[in-house]
Prior knowledge:
The complex is a heterodimer. By secondary structure, chain A is an alpha/beta fold. Chain A has helices at about 40-55, 60-70, 85-90, 105-120, 135-145, 155-160, 165-170, 185-200, 215-240, 255-265, 280-285, 325-330, 340-355, 360-375, 395-404, and strands at about 30, 30-35, 80, 90-95, 125-130, 150-155, 175-180, 205, 245-250, 270-275, 285-290, 295-300, 335-340, 385-390. Chain A folds into two domains: about 10-25 and about 75-105 and about 225-404, Rossmann fold, CATH 3.40.50; about 30-70 and about 110-215, Rossmann fold (3-Layer(aba) Sandwich), CATH 3.40.50.1100. In chain A, α2 crosses α4 and α5 (about 135-145) runs parallel beside α7. The radius of gyration of chain A is 19 Å and the shape is globular. In chain B, α9 links the parallel β6 and β7 (about 205-210). Chain B is globular, with a radius of gyration of 17 Å. In chain B, α2 runs parallel beside α12. Chain B is an alpha/beta fold.
Amino acid sequence: xxxxxxxxxxxxxxxxxxxxxxxxxxxxxxxxxxxxxxxxxxxxxxxxxxxxxxxxxxxxxxxxxxxxxxxxxxxxxxxxxxxxxxxxxxxxxxxxxxxxxxxxxxxxxxxxxxxxxxxxxxxxxxxxxxxxxxxxxxxxxxxxxxxxxxxxxxxxxxxxxxxxxxxxxxxxxxxxxxxxxxxxxxxxxxxxxxxxxxxxxxxxxxxxxxxxxxxxxxxxxxxxxxxxxxxxxxxxxxxxxxxxxxxxxxxxxxxxxxxxxxxxxxxxxxxxxxxxxxxxxxxxxxxxxxxxxxxxxxxxxxxxxxxxxxxxxxxxxxxxxxxxxxxxxxxxxxxxxxxxxxxxxxxxxxxxxxxxxxxxxxxxxxxxxxxxxxxxxxxxxxxxxxxxxxxxxxxxxxxxxxxx
Amino acid sequence: xxxxxxxxxxxxxxxxxxxxxxxxxxxxxxxxxxxxxxxxxxxxxxxxxxxxxxxxxxxxxxxxxxxxxxxxxxxxxxxxxxxxxxxxxxxxxxxxxxxxxxxxxxxxxxxxxxxxxxxxxxxxxxxxxxxxxxxxxxxxxxxxxxxxxxxxxxxxxxxxxxxxxxxxxxxxxxxxxxxxxxxxxxxxxxxxxxxxxxxxxxxxxxxxxxxxxxxxxxxxxxxxxxxxxxxxxxxxxxxxxxxxxxxxxxxxxxxxxxxxxx
Lengths: 404, 262
C-alpha cells in the first residue's frame, strides 16, 4: 500500500487502468472483495447479483431510475466554482454539490437505485443499517416513496447521540431497532442487519449504505453512485480549460461517495485522493481482513478482533473500507490520506464563511485536504481540484455548536 | 479423498448405530472453560466444538454473542486459548469454530498448523462459504485439519452437491434460516436439509442451530447422523451453571439419543 502522494514529475504519465469495472461473478477487486457470508445468505446474494445485472442492462430500469433521480432527488446536482476560497488558496476549487440532493447527501442516489431494484425483484421490505442516521433516513425516504416497509438497525449508542434522526426515520414511517450488542454502534448495526436478513431473505432486501458488504454490493452501490462522477465529468469539461481537474478528492468512510466520483475520472489523468478520518482510517492504518462479508483493509488488533473507529464524523466512523478502495490503494491509482477532527472542523467553518456553504463534517475532510495541500507539492498553485461535497452540514449544527 | 481421522472417528461411531452428539463451548467464557469441555467428553460427547470468540459474530444469536463478549472482555485471544488446549487432554476430538478474520489475521497456513500442534482435528468458519474456502482448504489439508462446510435450507441442489463432496470431517447441516440460538420448536426445514444431504453423501451429517432440548435432539437426529448443541448449553454457562451441571445436561441429551428409536 502506498501512502505517497502524487509526485508532480509524474503528472504526464498515463493513468493505469485499475478497478472500477465489473468485478466478475466472484466480486473481486484484486485481492479484495468476495462474498464472505453464511451459506444461508449465498443464494440471496446470487439472486441479487442476477437481479442487478438484469436491471442494469435494462433501458427501462435505467430510465425509471434516472427519472426518479431527476424529478424527485434533484439531479443533476451542480458543480460550483468556489471563487473566494480559490482566490485565497491560489488553486481552482470546484465543488460537486451532493449537499443539494434530496435528504441532504449522496446517500439518496444509492437507496433509490436499491429500492427500485428491490421492488422489481418482488421484495416488500427494506432492511438497513445506519450509524449517524443519514443512510437510515435516506432508506426510510425511498421506502416511503415506493411503498416498501423499512426496518433500520441502529446501535443504541448512536440512537442516543442522534435522537433527531431516529425521529426523522419514524416520521417517514420506518421502524428503528436499537442494537445493544458489541460496541452498540455502526459495525454492530451491520451485524444485526445481516443476522435479520438471514431470517427474512424471501421478502426483504438488505439495502447496504456504502460500497461494502458481500458481492454484489460494493460494485452495485458504486454503480448507483457513478452518477456523481459522470455528471461531474461533463460539468468539469464545460468549466475547465483542460476539461479534467488535476485532482479529484473525496472523503472515505466506507467510501461510497468517493467511489461514485472516482468512477467518472478513473480513466482520465486526474489524480484521485481519498481522505480518511484519522480515527477511522482503514486504508492507512488497517490490515487485510474480513468483515461484514468482504475482504479489505480493516482496523483490527493483532488477533483479528475488530477495533472501533473514533471519528468526530459519525458517517466516517467505520473500521473497514470498501474493497475497491483497498484495491485502488494497492495499485496506486488512488492515494489515501488522513485528516484530523480539528482540521475537519476548521474546514467546515472556512467553507461556510468564504462560500456560504455549510458542508457535512464528513465532506469537510475532503475540503480540509485542499486547505492543507494547496500551494504545496501535493497541490501546486494554479492546480484545478474537484471536491465531492458529499453532504450538507445542517445535521452537524448541534455538534459544532458544542465544539466551537 | 480419503477420510481424515475426525471423519473416520465419527463414521465408526455412526456405523455402530450411535447418534452423534457434538456439544459446544465458547473458549475463555470462564476461567475454567476447559472443564466444561472435559465434562462434555465424560458425558458421552462424540466430539466437542470450541468457539474462538470474535468481536463481530455475524451468524450468532444473542446467547453466543454474549458468551463471546464475556470471553473477549476477560482478555482472551485465539492464540492464548489454543495454548490452553495444548496438552489439555479433553477426552474427545476437538473442532474449532471461528470467523474468517481470526484465521486470515493469523494466516491460514500458520493457523491450521497451530491447530494441528495443539491437537485440534477440525475447523468450522461460518462466514466463509464454499466459494471462498478454496484459499483455505490447501492450508487445512497440508496441516491435516478437516475443514467442515455448512449447508443451509436455502442451499441450491448444485451447491449442496459440491458442499457434500468437499466438506471434511462431517457435513454441518443448518436447520433453519436464521442465527444460532434456542427456539421453541425445531424448524420444519431441518428434516429436508438432512434428507437432501444424506442422499448425496455417506459422510456423517450433523444438524445444528436451535437444537436445545433432548427431545429436539432426538427429532433432529431422526433424519441425520447426529446433532450439535450450542446456545442451550451456553445459556446455562452464562447463568452460572458448573461444569458438572453442564455435564448432566449433555448426559440427558446423550441418553435421549441412545434410546432405540422407531
